[in-house]
Specification:
151 residues, mainly alpha
């Protein structure tokens, strides 16, 4: 009797199995925290170092942090997706994070516009925005950007 083919749920040879949900959430949160630092450093460098406005700094901070977190999550949170085409996966990740971005930066912009303390200490606005978008970002990353079986 010939060997049976692997079941559709079985990982492909050489591809790691997905991590348990709790482990993914923890890793995603840790990497998101690191992304927060990257985001904040970018906002401060662009605003205070280059003299650009806080809104421009916020957009650039998001793009730099999104690229950083994509690379880290690809490697440590969703290793089963590491073999996928990088450019397409990065584009999916950034696209799926758009709603999270809107929630994140909407919170950021609202605080900058209406709260003097946030204008004086933009880290507070960055932190509030990051927390507001994190849950949505995890769900879309897990179910769309890094979903196993995507090319």
């Amino acid at each position: 009797m010939p060997p049976s083919p692997p079941s559709p749920a079985a990982p492909t040879e050489g591809v790691p199995a997905p991590l348990p949900l709790a482990s993914q959430m923890l890793r995603f949160g840790v990497i998101g925290s690191l992304g927060f630092l990257v985001d904040t450093a970018t906002v401060y460098a662009v605003h205070f170092g280059l003299g650009l406005g806080l809104y421009v700094a916020g957009v650039l901070g998001f793009l730099v942090a999104a690229t950083f977190t994509w690379a880290m999550n690809r490697r440590f949170t969703f290793p089963e997706a590491e073999g996928q085409a990088r450019g397409r996966q990065w584009a999916r990740f950034v696209a799926t994070q758009t709603l999270g971005f809107l929630v994140n930066r909407g919170t950021y912009a609202g605080l900058i516009a209406f709260v003097a303390l946030a204008r004086e200490h933009p880290v507070l606005a960055v932190a509030a925005g990051s927390l507001a978008g994190m849950v949505l970002n995890f769900i879309t990353a897990r179910t769309i950007a890094f979903r196993a079986g995507r090319a």
